[in-house]
Amino acid sequence: MTGTHNLHNACGVLLHGITSITIIRARKRWRIAICSIRFMVSLAREIVSKGKIHDSRILRSHFYTSLALEPSSSHRGGTSSTLLHRITTVTISKAHKRWRIAYIVISSLRLMVSLANKIIVKGNSHESGISKSHSYTALYISCVPSIDQTRLTEMVLEKDVVDLRRLGGVEGIANALKTDLEKGINSHDEEVRRRREMFGANKYQKPPPKGLLLFVMDAFKDYTILILLICAALALGFGIKEHGVLEGWYEGGSIFVAVFVVVVVSAVSNFKQERQFDKLSKLSNNIKVDVLRDARRYKISIFDIVVGDVIFLNIGDQVPADGLFLAGHSLQIDESSMTGESDHVEVDSTVNPFLFSGSKVVDGYARMLVTSVGMNTAWGEMMSSISGDSTDRTPLQARLDKLTTSIGKIGLAVALLVLVVLLIRYFTGNTRDKDGKKEYNGSQTDLDNVFDAIVHFVAAAVTIVVVAIPEGLPLAVTLTLAYSMKRMMADQAMVRKLSACETMGSATVICTDKTGTLTLNEMKVSKFWIGQESVEEDSSSGIAEHVLKLFHQGVGLNTTGTVYKPASASEPEISGSPTEKAILSWAVLQLCMDVEKLKQGYTILHVETFNSEKKRSGVAIRKTADDSIHVLWKGAAEMILAMCSSYYESSGITKSLDEDRAKIEKIIQGMAASSLRCIAFAHKQISEEETGCPNDKTTRHLLREDDLTLLGIVGLKDPCREGAKKAVETCRLAGVEIKMITGDNIFTAKAIATECGILDPNHQINGEQVVDGAEFRNYTHEERMERVEKIRVMARSSPFDKVLMVQCLKQKGHVVAVTGDGTNDAPALKEADIGLSMGIQGTEVAKESSDIVILDDNFTSVATVLMWGRCVYNNIQKFIQFQLTVNVAALVINFIAAVSVGEVPLTAVQLLWVNLIMDSLGALALATERPTAELMQRSPVGRTEPLITNIMWRNLLAQAFFQISILLTLQFKGESIFHVRQEVKDTLIFNTFVLCQVFNEFNSRSMEKMNVFKGIHKNLLFIGIVGSTIILQVVMVEFLNKFADTERLDGLQWAVCIAIAALSWPICWIVKSVPVPDKPFLNYPKRAKVIFRRITNFFNQMESPSFKLGIRPGKSSSRRIAYRMG
């Protein structure tokens, strides 16, 4: 107190305004001096009061002297008077509202810091410097780490233990990074921001996204577009030469404009979808991790991690950054993503404390200290180098590519044939101009006119190719997938692999978990048994004290959850898995368990973490008071019971299980039949003989699994989700079988399955419907294949059992979807046709192995994904039907017209406009249809079912035949029917053809239903596209005559065009009433080819020497040949 008292006398009036100062002593020295803001306020008031005594326009100083105190002892006495002298000589200008005193406040702040430094020096030399006041003012002061990032990065990457020890070990690194290992870093935003600026953000650099211009350039790489551009350039040159600039640019210029519009629309569509995929990719990479900040556990984004953070790691987690092992047990890491080695690496605090970003936790749990993030990690550099565009093609896209190639070849053949016919007719003098004269008269024809005609023919042929090639199919798939992915995100499903969208529509079996998927995953302890006695709520006072203490140990020390008691809240904050949280919460609130006190009294020697295969966890501990060693087990009730030889009663008496084992088993079965998850706790004290050699480095042998004493059994209630039963019924009506695979015992599994509708309560449940995992595993392969389709529930299953079931179902020809959330579920998720991981409880390993992430862990969302999968497939089929109708009609019309009259009725510009309607706008309209209830009333699409079904062939051939008949009639009889010129007739053909596509777009909305308008009001985009198409068609015909090579039509002609096009609706209704066979049409030619080949082989055998020598096939062979021929 003496040093502080002297300083107070020296400062005099200055320290009069300071009413409270708190100095917090932290880690061996005083670091922070908290000075009251009231000092500045008091100082300002004093200056103002001084200024009021004098005239407002007194002497002005031409310079300002900084306010600071030298630390020299010779100036201590005069510090106060000097300060006051300087303050009174400062002029405050009333003309500027007398408040221009900012420089004084700043200088005063500097003075305050200087005085605070003096106080700290004094405080360090005495036990207590300044008496504490009852009022405190918090002042955040940032701490600057004193270590180089490069050294940290190299140390971890090279696993340099020597350098780590040189820096003081993990504790030395933590001190250098200003991290409290027990509390973490400060959660203040400024602290996090400063660390991010110093050490970088936890993000890796990616190449800049592909710009719109690059998509445009990609579109121009299409060889048909390039040929059209060449033709357009030639037509433009010849046109200008023949007709001049004002009139000659129309044909070539219009082709240029049409090609440009097609290219831009395609490029913009691809650009937008690419942005959509990038956005979804960022969402899928946004992993949530648990960090320790200000002694509290927070769940934050992986991108918000900074150097110095303390991270919690559990089984299945991805290590989010490079770092060092702090504390934990049995930590096994899969570093194959970094090193390529499949062996798991053990990480501990002595030999190998190094953790790499991107590696996976396969066993154990730990806390780690982050030392490097983002591009300072090897994972960041690697991901940055491979984060380019993905070129993966989905199976459906591959099938569409083949279809596009096949149709393109047909279109190319037709186009070449048309070109040959046009050239032959031209050079043989069979084509005439508008005046009726021959266009080619041998040597009398100008060479420019010949070239002009050839260019015109080539442009027409190339345009036919453009229309024939269904370039809109890839665009339709992209649009459908992008639209569906976006909508599925809103329905709580995030697609990681595009192929899953389409494959889900073919799913025939869904193997689902129970906990969290069919149930709410909101655990609550509803039953508690000690021995054969049920302990009611708030009745823990009747339990013997030593039994209660053992139970506290079994709950509080054998757990991966944490309990935090904030000073401001009455309820503790508990984190961990739903099961851990439920048990911890119950033990803290009902059994008055104090976790912190427990941890202080015991040392953990070895931990075996819970996994879904063993279904139990154990811990070996040493009691600090007497060095005795205890083993505590927790897990599935019947498994823990099998490890026990005795049990505790609530009175504290220990009894043998020999006589009462069956009774306790009956208690477990009764709880399980009430849909309760049963968790048992057991204990054993290890004798000195059982502890083993004192020099033995491993403590695994301490976890004895026999001769335990049962402490008690808790029953956890996890109610079914509200919509689970309805979702199960929806899937069943859709032809999809639901199988529940759970780790719970068979009684709990039956109860939940019955409650969710998987098992029918009105029918007798037999052994074929419900099996135990071990029983299924021990079947022979033939038995499994025979019974697998009948099984609806598999209880006490291991991850291997789930894989085995998926393999059997796939061998049976099923398309299998599997849900999973644990690390051990990864093999089953990969083995399945569609892997569905859980977004809330799922580990990162499970998510990476899956195709779709169910964000809300709800089975209802699984049913929604199924519906969207069918919608994707259905929308693409709709567009194929629509596009092939246009392809067939356009090819036939142009070919027949070219052969018969030597010209095509649709010009290059008109065909490009039809191509735009068909490819881009049509795809956009039909690809954005939302799923309907009717989709879930169909059977799943089989693996071998053709992409173009019989129903599609029926619809598209009928519409194509109608359009061909009408347009060819107009081509050959239009002038006489309507009494119009040829130019008007060609416009009528063009207008009718476009309007037919508009009306057929409505027909394509449903391939089977008569009512094609149902739900159309929900798809505003479809209505907008159809409306825009009609408006643009009116503009093309009425206002862009030169550009589109059209003539204006009167009202009657428009009415005729609309009436003809509208006939497609009644034709559609009539055709849809015509039944079609189930066997695909295209299989008949294949079957005929097979029969023909077999008949040929038979006759070849008759001509063979053996046949002529009298050697005949056996009776069975003759029958087999006759059967094959039939």
Automatic annotation (TrEMBL):
Q: What is the membrane topology here?
A: Multi-pass membrane protein
Name its cellular compartments: Membrane
Q: Which UniProt keywords apply?
A: Acetylation, ATP-binding, Calcium, Calcium transport, Calmodulin-binding, Ion transport, Magnesium, Membrane, Metal-binding, Nucleotide-binding, Translocase, Transmembrane, Transmembrane helix, Transport
Entry's Pfam families? Cation_ATPase, Cation_ATPase_C, Cation_ATPase_N, E1-E2_ATPase
Q: Does the keyword Transmembrane apply?
A: yes
| Record field: transmembrane | 223-240, 252-271, 407-427, 453-483, 884-902, 908-928, 1019-1040, 1052-1071
Please report the stretch or stretches of sequence annotated as the Cation-transporting P-type ATPase N-terminal domain. Answer: 166-240
GO molecular function per UniProt: ATP binding; ATP hydrolysis activity; calmodulin binding; metal ion binding; P-type calcium transporter activity
Q: Which InterPro entries match?
A: ATPase_P-typ_cation-transptr_C, ATPase_P-typ_cation-transptr_N, ATPase_P-typ_cyto_dom_N, ATPase_P-typ_P_site, ATPase_P-typ_TM_dom_sf, ATPase_P-typ_transduc_dom_A_sf, ATPase_P-type_domA, HAD-like_sf
Question: Which EC main class describes this enzyme?
Answer: translocase
Q: What is its EC number?
A: 7.2.2.10
Principal location class: membrane
Annotated Gene Ontology cellular components are: plasma membrane
| Keyword Cell division in record | no
Catalysed reactions listed for this entry: Ca(2+)(in) + ATP + H2O = Ca(2+)(out) + ADP + phosphate + H(+)
Q: Tell me the function of this protein.
A: Catalyzes the hydrolysis of ATP coupled with the transport of calcium.
Q: Belongs to which family? A: Belongs to the cation transport ATPase (P-type) (TC 3.A.3) family. Type IIB subfamily.
The name of this protein is Calcium-transporting ATPase
